[in-house]
């Protein structure tokens, strides 16, 4: 998928004025946040599990080569095949090769963010294959010809009305308006596709080194129908998703469902180990795993290793005030919200995603709910430092910061400046607020600035110090 | 292609080790990692396993019925079938072949077809922690039975209900045949909230899942 993160500001403004989007986002925000909070409160061990999950991920990353080798050997032993892809292009080539070899006409897909990351659908379609997304949310946005706007709820930006329109256009009428009827219509259409599919592609929430299994966690069962009914099952996953043992996966399972959808568990947890066996009546004849690096091994060195702990639950975006206002599409690539604002510049280049690390108020809610305790605000701040050091930030901004530093490191000058500023602002104020502020019109265009009242913070601080 | 993959494999391992600032791990360290046994915190439980399983499974829109013995399965399924007004046809896991099914039923033990409405399957275990049943793919229990029909009836031996996921994994490790090709852990009927966060059952998998707990 082509990156359009450079248009963040333009897209954000567009999103804020999109009434349907704002309606959809409002509903999602309340649902996700409330349900997660209930689940976290209902589990006294929740904080302990977060700490253990963080430590376990750190342990895995420190020994990543070992666990990947063990995993590969176990997959092979179970009759499957592991493929290694350094980047998106290699990953697409590997999957295309398999599809062409088995003469695939229809490819069904369970939800996989890695497949979005590597731009898989476009490549398969280009080679004449019918590609069908089977997760309901992914199916909706495939009909709309849009990328996902959330990593676990890809169509969260769509209202029911919009889904009705899309289904009517794609399936023919009569137009359905009830959620139950819409879901049922998709169920009937997709059923035929599962049974017709030559290749089924899914993601992998966890890769188990102990058994050579891939594990997926879903609510709909689409991933299972995809991988059970196709002749060939291909798993796409990032190299960081390996875990040593099944018992390690259960630690993450306890956190994932609660953090993602606010449930104790998702409906389906499926462990897949190799292809169909002698005597089996169903299941795929071939089982492949495509392990994608695509910038991950580079992240492993240094500060951003912590980002590789991510288990893709989406809690950070659910709790982000910026994401909640502008939705996922404004971010311009595959991963939105706080985790996306870290990943996108690291995978696609800092200069391709300048605005993303800056589209953050550093309020810290994302870090406080992250099940593996990724310090997202710190990482975003680090990206800002990098942008500044590489002179990617606007010249005016760098000059202004320089001037600020000059003043802020000279207390007398700072206090004098503050004294003047407070008086100027008081003069500009009308009825307790300032409607327009020169040099800050972007800010005052959409809201008023309160007029300073009483003493400044420093004056009060100094007055209290004696007490 | 194989060539590219081999080169890529080496390159990825090289990049990982260079990021970790070390070469391949020494054998002693690898043996240590292989011997590592996870001891993660498990959420406390204080209920009877069977009771917890039932209330958790029901909280996820599943239904549960207790029966005294295996011989009671066909009658229980017939009552369920009649209450759901389903036709007298079912895909039955071959593991349940020996049961005496009603004479007017059409029973088959093959994979589930696209029109399949009802399946009856065995299970490997119940997990009380989340109210989930664990099913393993085999000739006796095809995976399509678990996902294609509208109504899925699962037979669960009460003695096979365990407390935690970890106990279920241990059960899999003890099997002579090792890991099943597909291990399905199922917590109620299929669901989606992809249209305006409204929970709707029966997205792609079964619309209803009914568990028969056999034995005391």
Explain this structure.
The complex is a heterodimer of chains A (467) and B (216). With 467 residues, chain A is of the alpha/beta class. Chain B has 216 residues and is of the alpha/beta class. Chain B folds into two domains: 31 residues, no CATH class; 169 residues, Rossmann fold (3-Layer(aba) Sandwich), CATH 3.40.50. Chain B has a six-stranded parallel β-sheet, sandwiched between helices. A four-stranded mixed β-sheet of chain B has the order 8-5-6-9. Chain B is elongated. The model of chain B has no long low-confidence stretch (mean pLDDT 96). At the A-B interface, helix 2, helix 3, helix 4, strand 1 and helix 5 of A face helix 1, helix 2, helix 5, helix 6 and strand 9 of B.
What characteristics describe this protein?
heterodimer, A: about 475 residues, Rossmann fold, 6-stranded parallel β-sheet, 4-stranded mixed β-sheet, globular, B: about 220 residues, alpha/beta, 2 domains, about 30% helix, elongated
- Name the CATH superfamily assignment of the largest domain in chain B: NagB/RpiA/CoA transferase-like
- The radius of gyration over CA of chain B amounts to 22 Å
Multimeric state of these chains?
A: heterodimer
Helical amount among residues of chain B, as a percent range? 25-40%
Find the count of extended strands of chain A (DSSP E, 2+ residues): 12
């Amino acid at each position: 998928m082509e990156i359009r993160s450079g248009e963040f500001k333009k897209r954000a403004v567009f999103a804020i004025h999109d009434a349907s989007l704002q309606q959809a986002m409002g509903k999602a925000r309340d649902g996700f946040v409330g349900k997660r909070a209930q689940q976290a409160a209902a589990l006294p061990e929740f904080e302990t599990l977060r700490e253990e999950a963080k430590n376990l991920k750190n342990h895995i990353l420190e020994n990543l080569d070992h666990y990947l080798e063990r995993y590969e050997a176990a997959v092979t032993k179970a009759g499957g095949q592991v493929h290694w892809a350094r980047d998106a292009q290699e990953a697409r080539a590997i999957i295309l090769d398999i599809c062409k070899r088995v003469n695939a006409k229809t490819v069904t897909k369970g939800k996989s963010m890695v497949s979005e990351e590597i731009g898989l659908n476009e490549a398969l379609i280009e080679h004449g294959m019918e590609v069908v997304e089977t997760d309901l949310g992914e199916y909706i946005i495939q009909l709309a010809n849009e990328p996902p706007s959330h990593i676990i709820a890809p169509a969260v930006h769509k209202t029911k009305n919009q889904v009705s329109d899309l289904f009517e256009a794609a399936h023919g009428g009569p137009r359905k308006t009830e959620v139950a009827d819409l879901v049922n219509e998709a169920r009937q259409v997709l059923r035929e596709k599962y049974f017709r599919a030559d290749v089924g592609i899914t993601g992998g929430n966890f890769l188990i080194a102990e058994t050579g299994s891939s594990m997926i966690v879903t609510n709909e069962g689409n991933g299972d129908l995809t991988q059970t009914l196709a002749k060939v099952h291909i798993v796409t996953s990032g190299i960081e998703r390996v875990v040593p043992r099944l018992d390690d996966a259960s630690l993450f399972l306890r956190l994932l469902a609660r953090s993602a959808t606010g449930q104790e568990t998702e409906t389906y947890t499926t462990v897949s180990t190799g292809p169909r066996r002698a005597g089996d009546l169903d299941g795929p004849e071939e089982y492949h795993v495509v392990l994608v690096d695509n910038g991950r091994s580079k992240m492993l060195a240094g500060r951003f290793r912590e980002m590789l702990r991510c288990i893709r639950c989406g809690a950070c975006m659910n709790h982000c005030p910026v994401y909640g206002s502008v939705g996922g599409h404004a971010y311009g690539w595959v991963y939105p919200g706080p985790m996306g604002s870290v990943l996108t510049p690291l995978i696609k280049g800092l200069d391709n995603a300048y605005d993303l690390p800056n589209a953050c108020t550093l309020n810290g809610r994302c870090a406080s709910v992250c099940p593996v305790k990724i310090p997202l605000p710190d990482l975003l701040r680090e990206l800002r430092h990098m942008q500044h050091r590489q002179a990617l930030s606007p010249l005016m901004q760098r000059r202004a910061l320089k001037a600020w530093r000059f003043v802020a490191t000279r207390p007398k000058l700072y206090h004098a400046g503050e004294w003047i500023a407070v008086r100027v602002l008081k003069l500009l104020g009308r009825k307790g607020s300032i409607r327009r502020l020169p040099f800050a019109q972007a800010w005052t265009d959409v809201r008023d600035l309160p007029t300073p009242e009483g003493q400044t913070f420093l004056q009060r601080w100094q007055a209290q110090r004696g007490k | 292609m194989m060539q590219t993959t081999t080169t890529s494999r080496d390159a990825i391992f090289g990049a990982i080790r260079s990021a970790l600032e070390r070469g391949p791990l020494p054998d002693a360290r690898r043996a240590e990692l292989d011997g590592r046994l996870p001891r993660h915190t498990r959420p406390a439980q204080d209920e009877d396993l069977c009771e917890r399983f039932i209330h958790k499974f029901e909280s996820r829109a599943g239904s549960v019925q207790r029966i005294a013995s295996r011989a009671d399965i066909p009658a229980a399924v017939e009552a369920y079938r009649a209450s759901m007004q389903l036709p007298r046809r079912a895909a039955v896991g071959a593991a349940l072949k020996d049961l005496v099914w009603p004479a007017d039923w059409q029973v088959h033990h093959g994979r589930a077809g696209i029109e399949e409405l009802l399946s009856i399957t065995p299970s490997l275990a119940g997990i009380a922690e989340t109210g989930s049943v664990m099913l393993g793919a085999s000739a006796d229990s095809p995976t399509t039975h678990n996902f294609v029909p509208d109504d899925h009836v699962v037979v669960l031996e009460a003695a096979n209900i365990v407390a935690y996921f970890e106990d279920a994994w241990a059960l899999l490790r003890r099997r002579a045949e090792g890991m099943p090709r597909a291990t399905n852990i199922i917590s109620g009927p299929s669901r989606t909230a992809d249209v305006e966060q409204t929970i709707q059952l029966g997205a792609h998998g079964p619309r209803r899942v009914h568990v028969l707990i056999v034995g005391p």
